[in-house]
Amino acid sequence: MTPGERLHQVIFIGRSEARKGLDVLLLAWPRVRARTGARLRLVGIEIADARRRVARLGAEGDGVDALGPLSEAELITELRTSKALVAPSLGRESFGMVLAEAFACATPVVASRIRGYTEVVVPSTGMLVPPGDPDALAVALIDLLENETLRQALGRSARTAAETRCAWSRIVARLVEIYDSVVAASR
Known about the structure:
Layout: E1 9-13, H1 22-36, E2 39-43, H2 47-56, E3 64-68, H3 72-81, E4 84-87, H4 97-104, E5 109-112, E6 126-129, H5 134-146, H6 148-164, H7 168-186
Parallel strand pairs: 1-2, 1-4, 2-3, 4-5, 5-6
Helix pairs in contact: 1-5, 4-6
């Protein structure tokens, strides 16, 4: 599927933990849906829990699909067919492997500006918003979904970032550098 043929949907991947920011996303989503008509695909969170949250936060009928946990192949298909990954985490995240997986699928990211994510998402690969701010999250998602040229450019840059900065060969080389410096310092 080419970048211009992607489905008009955004994907969230995460567990049922407050720090993942799903409630922030569900508060923002009705505005995004009303403006863009996009669908939201919830992956990872159990379907019953997702449905309860959607109902509690008033996002019922706003194009939210709860998919539950998926296989790796199904997850990759979702990333390759979605226009963006949204990662509204509130904090306590590390590198953000899901961000790198999205990049590998040429999928741009809208994520919270938190430690760990700011090391991965740069202006050429996605958008960062203040954590816990549904209004800022909605604005960023709307901007990305309404600007197809920008979305595709970010996707291409994300793919390049995955091939260079996030490639396992580069990560392993960096880890070896770190271990060598620790060993050298201990001598």
